Records
---
Amino acid sequence: MKAKKSLSASHITQYFSPNFQVSSQAKIHCFACLDSTNTWLKDNGECGDVCIAEQQTAGRGRRGKQWLSPNVENIYCSVKWCFKSVPAHLSLLSLVVGLSIVKALEKIGLTEHGVKWPNDIFWHQQKMGGVLIEAISSSSKKYEQQVVIGFGLNVNMPESAGKLIDQPWVSLNNVLGVTVNRHQLLAYVLESLTQELRNFEAFNIQQFQHDWQCWDVLKGKEVRVLQEQQEGSGIVEGIDGQGRIAIKLISGEVKYYTSAEIRLKK
């Protein structure tokens, strides 16, 4: 059996586009095992640094959920990014990150995928990946806002490794029918994400909303909304300029949510 190839910075960077320039100060840190790539970057990373682990012992998803991290199968990665001033549209960052990932997945040959609000990566109503963004208190005079952007993607994950996952999930290799080159995929994601982050302070809200409509897997779907132990249902109408999801309730009222668990009705 062929040994699985561990991720390395040199193999990732060879897949960057010729015109893509990374910061000379930024480094890609690769580890066999960490508790969490987000935690490592918060404690050790510099602005622009990337942290990758082949396995996480305490990987986290949204709402404090555990992110299962089988060894040398998937992508578990975090990026530390610093803004000179606090962007007025910072609430849209997690949605923008989700869009950058689905665009990168298209480059690897995936189709019929998209983003489930606010930033989960889905294919045919099955979860393929997710994003967790954490703000960092900044003591720097140069940067007012610092964040760590973590993302996980199911890439070459065997079915046996996902027995404890409590929702429908899918791995990229199962969809494409081949073992996926993780170095190439990660290069595509980092390039796409970095370009979005560099342009984020000069944000074009009209372009963003257009892009979101193209990739929104919930648009026009009937969903259940769970928030603070209350449950409702309605039809998703899209998002507003603040990144809130708009849902038309059974009563006819359109309600906007900044934080809620949205589940497709079966």
---
Amino acid sequence: MRKLKFDLDIDPNALLCPNPTEFYSKAYLTEDIVDNYRTLPGIKYATKIANANFTNILSASTCEFQAGASALSAITIDVCAVSAMAEICRFDLEQSFVSEQMVKGSNGSFEVASFMNHYWGEMSKEIEQEIEQIRWKGNTTLTGGTVLALCDGYEKGLLGDALVNDVTLTAVTVNNVLAAMAAVYASLATNAPALINKTADLRFYVAANVAAAFRQAVAAGNTNAYLTKNLDLTYLDIKIVVAQGMTSSKMVLTLKDNMIYAFDAEGDGKALKAIDLSDTIAEPKLRTRANMKIGFKHINGAEIVYYN
């Protein structure tokens, strides 16, 4: 019988790398993203979404064929290429809580598994937070080196779409939040009444301060709930989504499929880099880079109410 011998020695640099799939899933997608937006993965440059509209297609039955009106169109969804880059010095590690776990000697590797798990976790969390800011407030015309200039977000697109139903913004407080949300709801009921009963698919996107005011306003009339438990975030059976990146006091009410989030993710694991520079240019630094693509677009503006 033939015997095979396997060598299980692991390259030290392997310990520097996270699970690429796990890293990008946390960076691109938070827990509620898939439930609250229409996600389009695998977009490397741009893609088109087909749209067909039909009107007056019913007519009296005759022997003659009379077609109703139809319109075919396509919406282009672009993505922006961005990179997350970070660097940490070995000497900083040696003076931190992981120093006792490092290889003895001043020229050992960075292979401290507990720290690297923490490192990658914090990096993906920061990417997630910055993407959330860009998602709503991104504007490529901004200057000053802000991350918001990396890609256009929903707010810019909604503001520039004449079909979107606008409701004039008044700074939201505990005293007026219910009235403000009622005005947004009334606008949707008037301009897109067919959507009102689709509560499972509707989403009420609100800024963080709006959500806080809503909780306080509703709880004020329910002492038991106010004192004992957190209230469910719903408005007339419509799920309220706290959009952490949205500008203060703003709101959007529409079908979740009208808010598109495009990203690449496919093959991004190969672009995830963690390099110990002591092996290349003799600098005691760990340099990391994650390349990504993100894009935000809305469709069917007539089905959207924007409190701005």
---
Amino acid sequence: MLRGQVADIIIGSVFLVIGFTACAVAAIRRRTGARIFAWLGIWSALYGSVQLSQSQAIVAVSPHWFQFTAPYANRAMTYLLLVAGSLSFWELSLGTLRSFIQVTACAGMAIAIAGVSLFAFPGLSGKLTLFANLFGACVLFTLTVVVAVPALSRKYLVLPDRGVLAAGILIFAVEASYNSLSNALGFKTLRILDHLGFAALLLSFAYVALRLVLANEHRLLSVEKELAIAREIQTSILPRSAPEMNHARISAAYRPMTEVAGDFYEFLSVDLNRSGFLVADVCGHGVPAALVASMLKVAVQMVAACANDPGAVLCGLNRVLSGLLRGQLVSAAYLWLDTENHLALYAAAGHPPLLHWRNNELRQIESNGLLFGVKQEFADYPVFTMQTMPGDRFLLYTDGVTEPENVGGEPFGDKRLEDIVRISQTHSPAALSDRMLAEIRHWQPASLSQQDDITLIVIDVI
């Protein structure tokens, strides 16, 4: 028995190993669109399993439960071959053909369920097998026509090399037609032809899939290189260091969530006693937000002349950006510090409040106008005036400091931010920034990356 079936056993094992290997490749390279390898792997593994489950030699030496379930499993896997093949083709399809293949896969799944259910009724099961074969032949004919006709393949398929897939599917179609015709006429065909026809189809699919994955990886590498360059450019437009001021110590922390960020900060330093501090946060993440943040650099230069007036600075920024944001929204906060005259002025545009620490008391200062990007002819940004004294501490930050969530979905929140400020009153601005960032990282689940861009500026009056 074994001598007569050794070829089918070897071929089935080969297809099974190929299937597992393709699924492993899909799992390893899932970032580069390798899902087609998963369907190809399942397709190949099903074909190999069908061959092995048909082997009387393997069934004879198998446990009793496998001997009992082997016919059911073989019938189910035979029907599911059409589903796996359709989903493999679905990964290459576009438009109407994609919808057609989805319907085909659903119909194939329904046939598989019905086929297994009717296994107890041999007469009905045989008729369903004939129907399934006719249905599969119609699907194969449709796909063959789409691949063979250049105009149709350009419209409905994503193919880096149409010729290889066309050759594979034509070989399989010819072999299947020859096999069906021979059986109808009572001629016996070599089983090796079935295996060779399926191998030609599977290898042509694998070649096309490999070309697609390599192209996706090349595009991904190009995008990553461009993002790295974009990050270098964005970093170059941020201040290289905090300004030197008499009677003030300053620290700035900037942690983008991705390669490029929507947060922005700038210093408008006039002299050793006077300087402005701007923090802005563009709604959203990634490249669009980073482009708007870069536009802020140019806009800030246009309002530098009124650096001592926070209201005028924010009005000017809103005026410059209003025609450029294209639906994007930006929040901003601006603090002007004059250590010679012991004066601080603050205004904001829809931004989290300024934190002011004095005499063991922490208060939130909100002096907000409209977000940049909200259409209004005359936006007003009220200015809050404070007298400063040694020991004062100011914190400007974006919502990436307070909004990160823990495993339970609880945000970091203003309360924890204020607690850290209270217990760090003897720390330097740089030490407070480091502690704040460490607490935020600890708050977030270790399995997740940073949830938002973070910008934090700490200013101590000394």
---
Amino acid sequence: MLAAVTIGVFRLFHPVEFDVQPVRGSVLVMESDGRTRVLENRETAEVRGAAKIAGRGGGETDFILSVPGKIRREFRGLLEIREQEGHLLAIVKMDLETAVASIVAAEGPGAPMEELKAQAIVARSFLLAAHGRHHGFDFCDTTHCQYLRQAPPSASASRRAQEATKSLALVYEGRIIPALYSANCGGHTRSLAEAGWRVEGYPYFAVDCGVQGKIAGHRIGMCQMGAVAMARLGATFREILARYFPSATIEPR
């Protein structure tokens, strides 16, 4: 099973500089321009060129990454900053399950636990089956791939949903599927043919899900609003996924 994923973050801001800071209690080791600098006690480094940042011994660590005046977020993992076409590209290498919990936290705030579990399995399946979507890294942190924020605390609902479904993925004909989802299908999801998509592998089906409202998203795979409605009526995550992914099975990977 894939142990880690690489995620390009803050790309929409086209940054030309970053601020990097250790989370309290962490130590950062930054390599840049052939020099090594150790950051601790909330010391901040301004980064305007290529750099690599890790914990002591090269292991993952907790750090805060900022685009000055625009966005600030805490991550756990390894950080590489590359120079690319006149701006900087920040790539975080993080544990797969950390990424799953972070996606669930971004996609499902306030949702029932069974919907969060379904979301965790869908997110994990996509990460496992669709890695390498960008040149030089696996995914971005926007809805082009999957929306991702900082890792949630251990007691949070999103983290508990990730832990409760750890290693589980959607499988079709022996392969993990790149499971898709959208915010609101308006009551009916679409098949690939209806959407005009030509994608090999899992044949996404048109499904009635009993929710109404303004359509938001591509309407393929799991409808998040429909999944929330099912969970509130007592459906389990397995029942939710069986509705939206007929013919797929939930298996440990």
